[in-house]
TrEMBL record:
Protein name: histidine kinase
Catalysed conversion reaction: ATP + protein L-histidine = ADP + protein N-phospho-L-histidine
Membrane keyword on record: yes
Top enzyme category: transferase
TM regions (residue ranges): 26-47
Lineage, opening ranks: Bacteria, Pseudomonadati, Pseudomonadota, Gammaproteobacteria, SAR86 cluster
EC numbers, comma separated: 2.7.13.3
Length: 414
């Protein structure tokens, strides 16, 4: 078959495709892709740099928050916590994960919804149910445009400070009472001394048919009055009350001896001490009277039924603060004096008042109600803490926590 070339349209025949044609056709697309990939690589590097900067800022913020000794919470506008520092987790006994999403208002039984910039004291509650007083300071967190983002809440445990203020207030009250009693005691003692002297002189010169019985009653009354004044005067600080390093065990034994506990035939007294050396800073007079009054109180509770009084001295180490019935223990080493009886215990309605001056459940003439008050005053004067454990019908335990001294201090074993 013949194909006449003259009849063919040569313009419709495509030229042969070469490598040059391909390069010319796709060069622009390749250059465009290279530009896009370069831009993506630059954007990724820039993003990594920004992320690294944000991570660095986040780490710095976390380090700053953890360096604050008080509890710090960051919460959103719904009071939902999204961040907290280690002090907050330690104070409230929560793990970091447990605090995230927690309602800030759950931390207190008081109303925490206020955002006052002034420090106020609230009662807060830990994870284990224990409560404590704390100061709260709240600040709003705003963006650069002034939009509300949340709030920063700072909480400081003020248990120790309030306890110290309470102790100082108690000591000031006793000091004022002492100033009042000092002049009264001096004048009244002079009068009683004169009365007692004349009564004794009259008894020596009168015969058998004389008002001897009446004079003896007068003498007994004056002696009881002098004893009452002696107990009141125990509130007055004297130069002999200067505190020095002492062996607690020897002072306790002397106090038990002075109490006359051994004179009670139906009461058994035991004394137990551990192997530790118990050195405390104290006044021999006050320590002995403290022990004497507590043991006498136990003897009075057991005088009819009889029973046992157990006295123990042990070493106790505290790793974190916790509250006692009368005081707050801070971290440290303590020598603990415990006096326990198996008497009738203290009724609930009397517990809050047992350390008040002149408060007593004894019958008229059995005592003025100063023994426990004087003992508690001496506890405060030694910077000690007291835990009173009692149950009506089951006995009472007084546990006194004295700050233990280092072993290298010289000890006065008076």
């Amino acid at each position: 078959m013949e194909f006449p070339i003259a009849d063919m349209d040569l313009s419709k025949i495509s030229p042969p495709i070469t490598f040059g044609h391909i390069v010319d056709q796709y060069l622009f697309a390749i250059i465009l892709l290279l530009i896009i990939f370069s831009g993506l690589a630059f954007f990724i590097l820039l993003l990594k740099k920004r992320l690294s900067s944000l991570e660095s800022r986040s780490t710095l913020l976390e380090a700053v928050m953890n360096s604050i000794p008080d509890a710090v919470f960051l919460s959103d506008n719904n009071a939902s916590i999204f961040s907290s520092n280690r002090a907050a987790q330690s104070l409230f006994d929560y793990d970091e994960k447990e605090t995230i999403g927690m309602d800030l208002l759950r931390l207190s039984t008081d109303d925490l919804s206020t955002t006052d910039s002034e420090l106020k004291i609230f009662i807060f509650q830990k994870n284990n149910g224990e409560s404590f007083p704390g100061e709260k300071l709240t600040c709003e967190i705003q963006s650069e445009q002034g939009n509300y983002l949340g709030q920063l809440t700072l909480i400081r445990d003020v248990s120790i400070r309030l306890h110290q203020q309470e102790m100082q207030s108690q000591l000031q009250k006793m000091s004022e009472l002492g100033k009042l009693v000092k002049g009264f005691s001096h004048e009244l003692n002079n009068v009683l001394g004169v009365i007692s002297g004349y009564v004794q002189l009259s008894l020596a010169t009168l015969g058998m048919k004389s008002p001897e019985a009446n004079l003896n009653n007068i003498l007994k009354a004056t002696m009881r009055s002098k004893n009452l004044i002696g107990q009141i005067s125990a509130f007055i600080p004297t130069s002999s009350d200067e505190q020095n390093p002492l062996d607690l065990c020897s002072q306790v034994k002397q106090g038990v001896f002075l109490s006359g506990a051994s004179d009670h035939k139906n009461i058994t007294t035991t004394f137990v001490e551990d192997d530790s050396q118990h050195r405390v800073l104290g006044s021999p007079t006050q320590l002995q009277q403290l022990v004497c009054n507590l043991v006498e109180n136990s003897c009075w509770n057991l005088q009819e039924s009889g029973g046992t009084i157990n006295i123990e001295i042990n070493h106790h180490q505290v790793t974190k603060p916790h509250r006692l019935s009368h005081g707050l223990l801070t971290a440290g080493n303590y020598s603990v004096l415990s006096i326990t009886d198996n008497g009738s215990g203290i009724a609930d309605e009397h517990i809050a008042k047992v350390f008040e001056p002149f408060y007593t459940t004894k019958q008229k003439g059995e005592g003025p109600g100063l023994g426990l008050s004087i003992a508690y005053n001496h506890i405060l004067a030694h910077g000690a803490c007291l835990n009173l454990a009692t149950e009506s019908g089951s006995g009472t335990t007084f546990s006194i926590y004295f700050n233990a001294l280092e072993n290298n201090l010289a000890v006065n074993a008076q």
